[in-house]
Amino acid sequence: MRRWLALAVALLTYAIGITYAKSATGDSVLVVLEKDLDKKQFSKFFAGLEERGFKLTFREPKAKAPLVIEDDVPQFSHVVFFTPTTKSFAPDLTPQNIVSLLSSGVNMLFTLSPTQTPLTALASEFSLIPTPPNTPLISHFSARDGDGPHTDIRVSVPQDHPVLSPGIPPVLFEGVPHAYALNPLLVPILRAPPEAFASDSENDSGSDSIVDAAEKGGEGLWAGSQLGLVTGFQTRDGNGRAVWAGSISLFSDDSAKKEGYGNLRFVQDVAKWVFQETNVLRIEGALHRHADANETDVFPERYKINDQVRYVVYISKWNPDTGEWELYSGLSDLQLEFTMLDPHIRTALPADKCISGRCSGAYSASFRAPDRHGVFKFVLDYKRRGWTFLHSAITVPVIPPRHDQYPRFLSAAWPYYAGTISTSAGFVLFATLWLVGGGVEREVKKGKKTE
């Protein structure tokens, strides 16, 4: 009896934890904190995570416990790397394990520094191109407090970014930038100001090298808004997210306390996105049926060419305030493809109208099956930067009608009908005239011989 009671309590506790979890993937966070750093320096950032229901566990980079992965099973839902200068990690934090964790759905937050570290090399696997060692971002024109160093840069925050909430003041950045390779999985969040550049000196002694790099172009030019400061990454299947930040001071209490800057709001929005609290979607279900069939008569085994088809998909969005999935009708650029090797039909999937403020989360479209038989797929492939990727594919055959299912007369065949009828009528008319006309001629000839 006690065993069953303990099991019931455990299940109830687990259900409550899931119900009120702020993240769609879990609330356990492992913070890998460098030995020389004190977690009190980032107390506001960590306090914000704890207020949202996350359970933080701290360890050093070389510590062997707690393990981040055990028996190929991740032990945490999220991992934060506050290790900007660490050059060696424990065996469970190798680059191979980090990539494996991200592929299995564990979210990652990385911080970099001008020092060359294993994480700097790992960034290239995410299509990021780090600057050479000891080349921080510098700006001689950025507005700063007093006569501060030129590495303290005031950076404007984009106001229409899907990851960030509107109205965030500029942030104070001190760190290293990175360039972008061509990868659609990258989500640029914060870019360098146009006048900033990466250099190993704060004076203008290296200005000639900057000019030479500008003339050459390509990766030699580490300057301008083509450089990223904070960049997100989302795996191909959309299960795991990662953020690369070129500054650990961006998360510090000193930056959060500065008046006129929005560092705290900015890092909170970044953490919400990377921990999958915001912009998280999923497909609840997809169905198809004949357009004139009942709503319960779904998933027919086959369609005939030129049939009227209706497709419906239900999408929900994670609500971190309630910790529940809610039906979502806010997508305006959803598309459906009906493909056989290539798309034969591509149509928009508009959301059904909301009734009395209640939305069903349904997106539907009706179309006519192509005049071609074969094995087709209903394909929904939604990929937008900053949002969870959605993919659904349903296979269905399209067949021609049976020999006894064609209509008696086809409107498209009327030219052939007319040709057949006219040929038959012409033959009958010709035969009649020939028979009638031939008899008269013989009678005339016979009369001449008699005379």
UniProtKB/TrEMBL annotation:
Domain spans labelled OST48 middle: 292-436
Compartments, record wording: Endoplasmic reticulum membrane; Membrane
Pfam families xref list: OST48_MD (PF23358), OST48_N (PF03345)
GO process annotations (BP): protein N-linked glycosylation via asparagine
Alphabetical keyword list: Endoplasmic reticulum, Membrane, Signal, Transmembrane, Transmembrane helix
InterPro entries on file: DDOST_48_kDa_subunit, OST48_MD, OST48_N
Chain segments annotated as transmembrane: 414-436
Family label: Belongs to the DDOST 48 kDa subunit family.
Name the UniProt record assigns to this protein: Dolichyl-diphosphooligosaccharide--protein glycosyltransferase subunit WBP1
